[in-house]
Amino acid sequence: MDFNEIWNEVVEWFNSEWETLLWGFCILIFGLVIIHIIRKIIKKILFRCKVETLGRRFVERVIAVILYVVYIMLLLQAIGVPISGMLALFSAAALAIALALKDNISNLASGVLIIFNKPFKQNETILFNGDLCRVREIRLLTTLLDTFDNRRLIVPNNELTTKTIDNLSTNGSRRVSVKFHVSHTTNLDTLRSACMETMKNYPRVFSDPEPILVLNEIDKDGVHFDARCWCKSSDYCDIMFGLTESIYNELKRNKISFASRRIDIKETNSREIMPVSEETYIVKDSVKSPPAKLDNLDEMGPDGLIPGSLKTKRQQKKLKKATLKSNKLSVNKEKK
Length: 336
Known about the structure:
Layout: H1 3-48, H2 53-78, H3 84-100, H4 102-117, E1 125-128, E2 131-138, E3 142-147, E4 152-156, H5 157-162, E5 166-167, E6 173-182, H6 188-201, E7 212-218, E8 223-232, H7 236-253, E9 273-275, E10 281-283, E11 286-288, E12 300-301, E13 304-305, H8 313-335
Antiparallel strand pairs: 1-2, 1-5, 2-3, 3-4, 6-8, 7-8, 9-10, 10-11, 12-13
């Protein structure tokens, strides 16, 4: 087949199908215009309903995907492509994809819940897994969080809906609590005066509710106090660190000593010598009879006689001889 034959077939097909092609081209242009108009209308409706920025973006993306899928199906049908078989194929493929991407679908559903239930909003501060984070963006599958040490956390939405989230920006005010531990000899009037003056004079601390100093606990090491005051949620971190340092300096200036942990150590003898009679002693729960009289001993240790406690070498020799005799006697008795 040469080039002329191919060209002739193309021309014949175009002459017979030019109306279908023209209709498909009109649908192509008209469909893009319609999609653009619908997206603008939806954007205005969401804005008038005062939907959050993250919610508007999410809804716009979902609607855009649905419109483009419908648009492609209509375009294929207009140019004569059978879509019934394609729909069946698309359904089977969608089921397989859903089973393979069940975790992503779960994250997608969680993203919808986050956007519309609003447990937190963009630029709010939350506590997640022990990290203080600021919400940057909520996407379809993930949420972007920025920590205060400039780390970017990309968290699946499913974790944010199944775990406990501490939203620190919902309420306009927060309580600052500075805990410290002083000794029992501390003058409480001096301590209270120093802490109250520091909290009242510290900038950005509310005067209503009034700052207070609470005695939390008394133990053997000292006395536990809690200095409490209120501030704006946005000022919490600055006031927490600054007020802790100010209270510490004020206590040092007033010569208030902090408590230190006390450990009691008791030394006990693991072995004791208990007199049973004048000539018998118990050492480590075993009964022993001394081979000689104990009148010449200087002292008695926990294990019996202390080496070198006898006054002279002559007495030591006598003790050795007496020990040998007593051992022989004990052996003879056992044999009998």
